[in-house]
Amino acid sequence: MRTPIIAGNWKMNNTIAATKALVTELIPLVKDAKAEVVICTPYTDLATAVELTKGTNIKVGAENVHWAEKGAFTGEISADMLVELGVTYVIIGHSERRQYFGETDQTVNARVKAALAKGLKPIICVGETLEEREGGLVEEVLVRQTTEALKDIAKEELANIVIAYEPVWAIGTGKTATAEVANDTIKIIRDTVAKLYDKATAEALRIQYGGSMNPKNVKELMAMPEIDGGLIGGASLKAPDFSLVVNY
Questions:
Q1: 237 near 26, Cβ under 8 Å?
Q2: Which of 76, 135, 189, 225 has the most CB within a 10 Å radius?
């Protein structure tokens, strides 16, 4: 049985003061969660989030990591820097990084390797645009993104990896794939991993749904056999909403 994992992606939201308020409110609301609980915060909030969640069941993740250990990469953060802060997870390849900041399948792979090398657990995002879905390219896109993201990654490392399927057309739009469509699409990812490695490795891999999962649709989505959790955007910014998702 795969342990469900619900991760909040705060994106570019919350000052340190707001982080203190949100995390303090969240801790008692999710303390009995069956799922693994993760909050991925902006860099400036990480130290505060790590400190506040010590001794709780909430783990902290970053929203990106650079592939180099150090160097002339103005504005970037290395895996060592995140490890020093006490971060556990890191989101890699989010569609907003791909759309706005030039992230490619190759840079995703480089970041994944850098994260794994330092003991961080990547949450690798894959997903198609509306044009790709309507053009019948869903499988082609997901196979390519998954294959490239996992290039030269050893089978043993997949125990430390989570994949988040996020249909780009459903992020922040209020649109959600039906539970059946989400389940079928995530099966494409799992089948791809089975071809790259083997069936047992694919069956053990946790794959989240990341397209506007919220308190209203979480039960239906989490009832699907292929869906192992969610990467939550807007609903993770309010403690009551996020706790309703976590405690589905």
A1: no
A2: 189
Average pLDDT of every residue of the chain: 96
Burial class (CB in 10 A: 0-12, 13-18, 19+), 181: middle
pLDDT, residue 169, reads 83
15-49 burial: b if 16+ Cβ within 10 Å, else e? eeeebbebbeebbebbeebebbbbbbbbeebbbbb
CA distances to 60, 102, 128, 161, 167 from 193, rounded to whole Å, are 26, 25, 17, 12, 18
Q: Which residues are catalytic?
A: 94, 166
CA count, 13 A, side-chain hemisphere, 136? 0
- Torsion sign, CA atoms 195, 104, 154, 7: negative
> Structural domains in the chain?
5-246 (3.20.20.70)
User: Given the structure tokens 């990812």, which residue do they identify?
Assistant: 189
| pTM listed for this prediction | 0.96
What is the full DSSP assignment across 11-31?
-S---HHHHHHHHHHHHHHHT
Q: Confirm if 14 and 45 have CB atoms less than 8 A apart.
A: yes
Q: Which positions ≥6 away from 246 have C-beta within 8 Å?
A: 6, 29, 30, 33, 35, 37
The token pair that represents 6 in the structure block = 């619900």
Pairing mode, strands 121-126 and 162-165: parallel
